[in-house]
Write a structure and sequence with these properties.
The complex is a heterodimer. Chain A is mainly alpha-helical. Chain A contains 6 helices and no strands. In chain B, a hairpin with a 3-residue loop joins strand 11 and strand 12. At the A-B interface, helix 5 and helix 6 of A face helix 9, helix 10, helix 13, helix 14 and helix 18 of B.
Amino acid sequence: MATPLRFRFWMRAVEVSVLAVAICFSIGATDASARFNNLGHRLMCTCGCAQLLGECNHVGCPESGHELKELTAAIASGLSDQQILDAFAAKYGATVLAAPPAKGFDLVAWIAPFAVFAAALLGTILLIRRWGGLGKTHAAAAGKPVALDPAEQERMERIRRETSVDTGSKGGF
Amino acid sequence: MAAFGSFCLLIAFALAAYNLLAGALALRLLATGQPTRISPERLADTARRAGIAGFVAVTGAAFALVWSVFTNDFSITYILDHSNRALPIPYKFAALWSGQEGSLLLWAWLLGVYGFVLRLRHKTDVKLYAYAGAILAGVQVFFLAILVWAAPPFALWRGAIPDDGNGLNPLLQYPEMVIHPPLLYLGYVGFSVPFAFALAALMMRYPGEKWIRITRTWTMVTWVFLTCGIFLGMHWAYAVLGWGGYWGWDPVENASFMPWLTGTAFLHSVMMQERKGMMKSWNVWLIFSTFLLTLLGTLLTRAGLVSSVHAFAQSSIGTWFVVFMCIVLAVCIFTYVLQRSHLKTEHQLESLVSRESSFLFNNLVLLTACFVILWGTLFPILSEYVEGSKVTVGAPFYNNVAVPIGLFLLFLTGVGPLLPWRSTSLKAIKRNFVLPSIALWATVIVCLVAGANPWAGGAFNTGRFYALVGFALAAAVLTAIVAEFLRGATVIARQTGRNLFAAHWLLTRRNTRRYGGYLVHIGVVISVVGLCGAAFNRNTESELGLHDRMSVGPYTLVQVGATQDTNPNYDSDYALLDVYKGNQRARTIEFDGFLFHLVPIFHIVPLQMAPEKRVYLASGQPQTMVAIHSTPEWDLYVVYEGANPDTGQPIIKAFLNPLVGWIWIGLVVMVFGSIIALVPSLVPATTALRVPAAQTASVAPALKGGA
């Protein structure tokens, strides 16, 4: 009885943690200067300097000055962050956004890394189970050398004998 | 000199081609045992000697280019475009890699150097080295072919020869540009050697652990060069570009980072092959991928597929690289398919929670990080192809995707060394994880109390959240590693009667690979702490008249002069700023020459900063020279943005960047750890402790989780 209770406790703890993190990440900036800073780092300067709008630092930049003023005005007008980003994208093109929007084909940019990570993680776990035979009856064989073809073994040994390199190492860590 | 250089390149090409063809023929004859008029061994030796002569020829070409720069031979287009008479001597060297043709020549020369050393050491294993030498010659043929036909560095200027050159790109006129690119190239090119050995070993069905031992030094040295190259590039970007940061996820930065990630994965996973005879196919493909990524990086930036602030030369050599990469990939796949039976694993895993599994997960994370960066770098091209319009994949994308992956990798850096080989018990895991867990939560509490919380400013700050996680993980990993050192050193101290410091030294010398590796991990942790500091950067901008003040953090800057200077290379405007910390004048340590030409002398002087804006006369291009006052706590980073055209007064932007110095200190520790790991162990680690039988029981737990 103790195990399911403990399991349920841990599952509940994980759920609460995930929820807390999700809430934290979904809270947007409400203060105007924080929003200005945040949005300034989600937009690119369009002068070709390849810098974020909030970090464009050259005096006399033909673009960043009026773009920052537009950003300030947009925040003051009460538009949401997404509306401001959409307005900039409509005016200057999609390249003004510092990251691809999470919609349409560009959503693939965000999904692919996590999908690949999940697939690789699953593949690694399956690989470890396959290599080790974990949870199967031949666990006793784990850790034992896999038998090679005798002729191949002999050939390998001959090469090892014929070459005299020995670093004295046993394989690091 | 142009004719001499071109002739050298032609000779080098012919010699490399001979090395490749004669070497391949000799090895084929040796494999089949066919009778021939000339013995295959002699043919292979002539191929090897051709390789050595080829190095001499490429050196001649490189010398010719350097000589032409120093003698201001503007009849050569490359010299005309990348140098001028007033260019200081160190930057004349930098001209060698400031353009397309020079960079490729540097690549070919460094490949020649690596090949030269490899061929001199051929007696280590004549046949394996012959295979590897022929493969390296194949790579060299490609680069020399480009230099001879597609991007000739000695092409002559058509028309009247100008009296002076166009000068070096101002961004490159900075001390680090004299050492950063060669180090980066040493890293890029160096991965050709383990690649050649891996392919050679696979072709001749050579025992895996042997070629890995032979190439271990090459791989480690290459990794260190690449690491130094990347970090120096970061420092250059920090000091020259003037935006207050050091890593902008620029395509060129990404191109250098990708092979570093796969190379790091390779360095870890080869231990599995050495120890357990596992992951043979994986290792072979890791090093193949690393080599291909070095080529892909060059293709991305040189062929103009993606734009970058670091790319100083672009041309149409992309097709050459695509064709060569296809050939390399085809050769790799063909050899692998033909010889894959040779790569059968020799052992099996015993436990999901073991050192072996941690290496697998470490590889998984490193490869995923590599994929994310490759994906982000190529996505604009893909998006343009699918949707017809480009998108930007900048820092926000990588910060949201790559940073969490990096933090997971940091977590594994700490966990891996705590797990023993083969399998472990739950009790042992609990015991090993107690201290790091305490350190982790203590750091979280300390950071929150100190005000480094993600909710500062009224909204949740993702960057600060990641920084908090980074600090906590760094503390846990550091504790885990230090505990490993202490555990081993305590045993040695008890056995030998030495003090703890001497015991640490002996412990490290007895297993340099293991403890050198731990030092590298400590370096990584220190650098990560520095990187986390970026979440707390502050900056302010102000126009400063004489005696005007501006403040950033605890510092106050007072303008005490704005003036101009000129020299034959550039004109400069700069501001003189006295720096106060609180009410006191801030102080700094200043180098003041050598005593008896030997002992450096330093003085403590009041801090005055002089940020500068230069305009280079030859090119007419402006350049920012940032003033940086670095302390362990933070960097005061001051930029002269320019003069207000209406008032003529300087506009100053000041940044306070916490913990930046830790990034560079981390690099020093990484390099030190790598050097330790390269030094042979004093005695084989497994026989290091000659312990009396009665005391064996007390030693065993101390080594748990280790070798």
